[in-house]
Amino acid sequence: MEAYIIILKPLCSSLLALLFLFVLSSSFADAKVHHHDFVVQETKIKRLCMAHNRITVNGMFPGPTLEVRNGDTLVVNVMNRGQYNVTIHWHGIRQLRTGWADGPEFVTQCPIRPGGSYTYRFTIQGQEGTLWWHAHSSWLRATVYGALIIHPQEGSHYPFIKPKRDAPILLGEWWNSNPIHVLREATRTGAAPNVSDAYTINGQPGDLYNCSSKDTVIIPVDSGETNLLRVINAALNQELFFTIANHKMTVVGADASYLKPFTTSVIVLGPGQTTDVLITADQPPARYYIAARAYNSAQGAPFDNTTTTAILEYKSAPCPAKKGFSIPPVSPSLPAYNDTNTATTFATSFRSRTKVEVPTDIDENLFFTVGLGLFNCPPKARARNCQGPNGTRFGASMNNESFVLPSNFSLLQASQQGIPGVFTTDFPAVPPVQFNYTGNVSRTLWQPVKGTKLYKLKYGSRVQLVLQGTSIFTAENHPIHLHGYDFYIIAQGFGNFNSKTDTSKFNLVDPPLRNTVGVPVNGWAVIRFIADNPGVWLMHCHLDVHLNWGLAMAFLVENGVGELQSIEPPPADYPIC
Ligand SMILES: *[C@@H]1O[C@H](CO)[C@@H](O)[C@H](O)[C@H]1NC(C)=O
Ligand SMILES: *[C@@H]1O[C@H](CO)[C@@H](O)[C@H](O)[C@H]1NC(C)=O
Ligand SMILES: *[C@@H]1O[C@H](CO)[C@@H](O)[C@H](O)[C@H]1NC(C)=O
Ligand SMILES: *[C@@H]1O[C@H](CO)[C@@H](O)[C@H](O)[C@H]1NC(C)=O
Ligand SMILES: *[C@@H]1O[C@H](CO)[C@@H](O)[C@H](O)[C@H]1NC(C)=O
Ligand SMILES: *[C@@H]1O[C@H](CO)[C@@H](O)[C@H](O)[C@H]1NC(C)=O
Ligand SMILES: *[C@@H]1O[C@H](CO)[C@@H](O)[C@H](O)[C@H]1NC(C)=O
Ligand SMILES: *[C@@H]1O[C@H](CO)[C@@H](O)[C@H](O)[C@H]1NC(C)=O
Ligand SMILES: *[C@@H]1O[C@H](CO)[C@@H](O)[C@H](O)[C@H]1NC(C)=O
Ligand SMILES: *[C@@H]1O[C@H](CO)[C@@H](O)[C@H](O)[C@H]1NC(C)=O
Ligand SMILES: [Cu+2]
């Protein structure tokens, strides 16, 4: 009896261990680790009749498309062989406990200096759909960006008809001048930076620009098939309308979250946003323009008023209709640049695909104004450094705080290592002064305060945040992006948010889950999320011009007490200043 038990015990436990190993390996068998090298380098790019030297990844513009599955790990070794500081941000990836890999310079890391390198490592957890990556340093993202596509895990599927093909459509913005110089000039003068010279689709401006038509991007289709287009707005400073001549689009996802499908002939994306659409090739075989141009909500502000095109080409289109022949593709109609009605109808059509669990019992009730401002010319400054309106310098703020990045430590390093003097945690939960945010704002309120203030959140706190646009200097739609989180957009509207009456508009059943919300021009949006990812997370306007003016703040989310509730230690090659 004794002997029998003694023999059985080790046998049993090794069997158990074997069984355990088997279960482990079968459930994670398909989780892969993808290794990539990103060489950041100067590359000659010919656009709009000229050759330009621009920073790219691996000499490609746009950069390489990364394709992974939900659950996979990405290991990207970024080597900086260019002449500028650089960082890479994995836009929309939650970076659960890996904030060190998020990317925004001086927020979660110091820049990778010329000659340096840094390996970003992170795992995709519970996300499927279209995201993207881009530089998060100066204006390098004008040419340093690419798609990041997350397929469902092996054996699972998209919750919609399997598309025959799928294609990323990256909308970009092109300057004939070096974008770094455009930003430097604006920083020196205090005026608005020059607007771009072209928009692009997958790096090409298309037929409506000079010297550009022979390189126009072609998206081939077969009659009858349904394809998935993954549209990404990678422009620096412009919300864009996007359409395809004579074809309807069925929206099925955005920012790597599924939506209740709806059909539309035009979509609108703020910089940072992605939208997945199905299109069926159900028109007579021919060539059709795919086109994008500005949605410019700011009245009277200069903007790039050009139109970029690509071509949807039916493979069975009669020969004369194909490339190189003279019959022009079918033209679409795009909304007027100031068509806020179309933008609003589109944004308010979004519903999550299923019922969702929206956080209730809110712990943190926050109200942040978002808008522009003007700094009076500092004493001793020269007139040439104050070329904003009436001798001012442009600024922008949240709750009157115009965000300034540190320069000696990243905020994340400073917070983790308790380094004093880099930031404070007194970012105001509500505006310091209440005023008619969308009214005729008194000039005495226009000048914000510069600082590096964070808002501290306890691990697990349930947050509601009202983002209230202001009409200071000019009202405008602001695409507000939160790092490290997806959030539910539970309502949006025009005018001033009214906490008594507007709660009736809250959708707590199936609101969309996104990482970037377009706060309507002269209006507001309400978002909710649970602070379950410790670290320092930048929240900012994704119009880079506004980000540079200070339209940003950061949340400092504390570690929780549970085993998997604290940030991992920093990687050995983590860049410090
Ligand atoms: C910005 O535009 C102005 C006016 O066209 C031009 O003089 C200036 O050189 C431009 N700046 C840059 C950096 O291209
Ligand atoms: C194309 O070139 C012509 C002649 O130089 C110029 O007048 C026109 O403005 C240019 N068009 C665009 C879109 O740049
Ligand atoms: C934009 O360009 C179109 C022509 O393409 C023109 O009709 C319109 O007036 C322009 N709008 C602005 C605000 O410049
Ligand atoms: C849009 O701009 C045009 C002029 O470019 C103007 O006539 C029209 O009233 C504007 N529409 C709105 C809704 O502001
Ligand atoms: C600039 O000054 C003029 C004249 O005093 C005034 O009409 C205008 O409103 C001012 N603009 C701004 C943005 O302060
Ligand atoms: C970092 O920079 C800030 C702002 O210039 C300064 O106040 C602080 O003392 C610096 N911290 C350290 C540790 O050098
Ligand atoms: C705020 O300003 C708007 C636009 O001028 C005006 O219609 C509204 O009545 C004002 N609201 C309040 C509460 O004063
Ligand atoms: C806005 O208010 C200022 C005074 O604060 C006044 O001079 C101006 O006329 C007002 N503008 C409008 C459009 O109501
Ligand atoms: C922002 O703060 C400055 C400095 O205290 C003040 O002059 C300005 O009126 C404030 N503006 C708002 C909108 O709170
Ligand atoms: C590059 O980054 C370092 C910190 O790592 C910083 O000291 C330096 O000023 C940056 N250079 C530029 C041109 O921003
Ligand atoms: Cu903005």
From TrEMBL:
Localization per Swiss-Prot or TrEMBL: Secreted, Extracellular space, Apoplast
Signal peptide: 1-31
Occurrences of domain Plastocyanin-like (ranges): 40-154, 167-316, 427-559
GO cellular component, as recorded: apoplast
Cofactor note: Binds 4 Cu cations per monomer.
The reaction(s) this protein catalyses: 4 hydroquinone + O2 = 4 benzosemiquinone + 2 H2O
Gene Ontology process terms (BP): lignin catabolic process
GO molecular function, a single term: hydroquinone:oxygen oxidoreductase activity
Chief place of localization: secreted
Domain of life: Eukaryota
Name of the top EC class for this enzyme: oxidoreductase
Family annotation (SUPFAM superfamilies): Cupredoxins
Keywords tagged on the record: Apoplast, Copper, Lignin degradation, Metal-binding, Oxidoreductase, Repeat, Secreted, Signal
Cofactor: Cu cation
PROSITE patterns tied to this protein: MULTICOPPER_OXIDASE1, MULTICOPPER_OXIDASE2
EC number per UniProt: 1.10.3.2
NCBIfam families attached to this UniProt entry: laccase (TIGR03389)
PANTHER family, A to Z: LACCASE-5, MULTI-COPPER OXIDASE
Family: Belongs to the multicopper oxidase family.
Role of this protein: Lignin degradation and detoxification of lignin-derived products.
Full protein name: Laccase
Species of origin: Protea cynaroides
